[in-house]
From TrEMBL:
Coiled coil regions, renumbered to chain: none
Alphabetized InterPro entries for the sequence: PM/HMP-P_kinase-1 (IPR013749), PyrdxlKinase (IPR004625), Ribokinase-like (IPR029056)
Domain Pyridoxamine kinase/Phosphomethylpyrimidine kinase: 90-264
Gene3D superfamilies the UniProt entry points to: 3.40.1190.20
A Pfam family matched in the record: Phos_pyr_kin
Name of the top EC class for this enzyme: transferase
Signal peptide: none
EC number: 2.7.1.35
Single Gene Ontology BP annotation: pyridoxal 5'-phosphate salvage
Matching SUPFAM superfamilies: Ribokinase-like (SSF53613)
Protein name as annotated: pyridoxal kinase
One annotated Gene Ontology cellular component of this protein: cytosol
Source organism of this protein record: Halovulum marinum
Length: 289
C-alpha cells in the first residue's frame, strides 16, 4: 500500500508539502494524541492540520486532569471549516485517533466520506483508540461500536493495539497469525497491530502488518517503561511516511524504530512522559538508510 505524494509546484522552486489531517486528542502538558504525533509528523516533512477532539491539561494518568472532551458538533464544525478551505482535496492522509464519544466518530466518518468524494487518492488511517490490555476499555460501548461499524469500514489501514484488534474482531490476538485472521473478519485492506505477543519469545512484542498480499512482523524487546501516547506517536509516524509515498511495511518499520528511540529515553517511573522534543531528530531518523 502506498500513497503518491501530493506535493505540487506552487511557484519558482517552492513545493507544497503532503498534508495530513490529524483528528485526535490534545493536551496542554505531555505527549498523547496530537500532542505526541503532530511535531514528529512535521519533522518527517509533511504539513499537519490538527483537529482536537479533547482539550485537556494532561493525560488521565496524573492525579488530576482538567479540561474536557469537545462537543461533537464543535468538532464537526471545525471539519466543515477545513472543507471550506479546500483542504480535503489537498490531503494525502486523514489520521484519526481518540474520539471521546460516538457522536464525534460519526462526524469524522461523515468527513472522511466527503473528502473521498473529491479526493479519491486519500488514505484514511484509523487508530481505534479504545483501551489496552493493562487498562481495559476506556471507550464506552457506543464509541466502541462506532469504531467497529462506522470508522473501521471506511479505513484503508487500521492501527490498533492487540487488545483493540481483539475487541473489534472477536479474534483472540495471541500471536502474529491471529492478526491475519482478524483482518479477514474485519474485511479491512490493511491492519497494523502493535503489542502483539510472540508465543515462542515471551520477552518480545511484535508489530504485525497484514494485507491481502501477506503478513510482515517487526519484533522488539519488551522494555520496563509505560508512557502514555506510544500508539499515537507510532500512528503519526506511519501516517507521515504514507503521505510521503512510503510503502506501508517500510513506513511501519521506520515508525517502530522511531518509537523505540523515544522509549529508550523515557524514564522508568509509571506514566513517565516520552522526551519527544529532545529526541525528535533521532526519532525521525530511526530506521533510515
Amino acid at each position: 500500500m502506498s500513497s503518491a505524494s501530493n506535493a505540487e509546484v506552487t511557484g519558482g522552486n517552492a513545493r507544497r508539502l503532503p498534508l495530513v489531517i490529524s483528528i485526535q486528542s490534545q493536551v496542554a502538558f505531555g505527549h498523547v494524541g496530537n500532542s505526541a504525533a503532530a511535531l514528529p509528523m512535521r519533522a518527517c516533512g509533511v504539513d499537519v492540520v490538527e483537529v482536537p477532539t479533547t482539550l485537556l491539561s494532561n493525560h488521565p494518568h496524573y492525579p488530576t486532569m482538567r479540561g474536557c472532551i469537545l462537543d461533537a458538533d464543535l468538532v464537526a464544525d471545525i471539519l466543515t471549516g477545513l472543507l471550506e478551505r479546500d483542504l480535503g482535496t489537498r490531503a494525502a492522509v486523514i489520521l484519526s485517533g481518540f474520539m471521546g464519544q460516538a457522536e464525534t466518530a460519526s462526524a469524522v466518518a461523515g468527513f472522511v466520506r466527503q473528502v473521498r468524494a473529491v479526493n479519491p487518492r486519500l488514505v484514511y488511517a484509523c487508530d481505534p483508540v479504545m483501551g489496552d490490555s493493562d487498562l481495559g476499555h476506556f471507550a464506552n460501548a457506543p464509541l466502541r461500536e462506532a469504531f467497529r461499524d462506522e470508522l473501521v469500514p471506511l479505513a484503508d489501514v487500521i492501527l490498533p493495539n492487540a487488545f483493540e484488534l481483539q475487541t473489534l474482531s472477536g479474534i483472540q490476538v495471541t500471536g502474529p497469525d491471529a492478526v491475519s485472521e482478524a483482518r479477514a473478519v474485519l474485511d479491512c485492506p490493511a491492519v497494523v497491530a502493535t503489542s502483539v505477543p510472540v508465543p515462542s519469545r515471551p520477552t518480545r512484542l511484535a508489530t504485525v502488518t497484514t494485507t491481502a498480499r501477506g503478513c510482515a512482523s517487526v519484533e522488539v524487546d519488551r522494555l520496563p517503561v509505560r508512557p502514555a501516547g506510544t500508539g499515537d506517536l507510532f500512528a503519526g509516524l506511519v501516517a507521515a511516511r504514507i503521505a510521503l509515498g512510503t510503502e506501508l511495511e517500510a513506513a511501519v518499520a521506520r515508525a517502530v524504530a522511531g518509537v523505540g528511540v523515544a522509549l529508550s529515553r523515557t524514564g522508568t517511573e509509571p506514566w513517565a512522559e516520552m522526551p519527544i522534543t529532545a529526541a525528535l531528530d533521532a526519532i525521525v531518523a530511526a530506521g533510515g538508510d
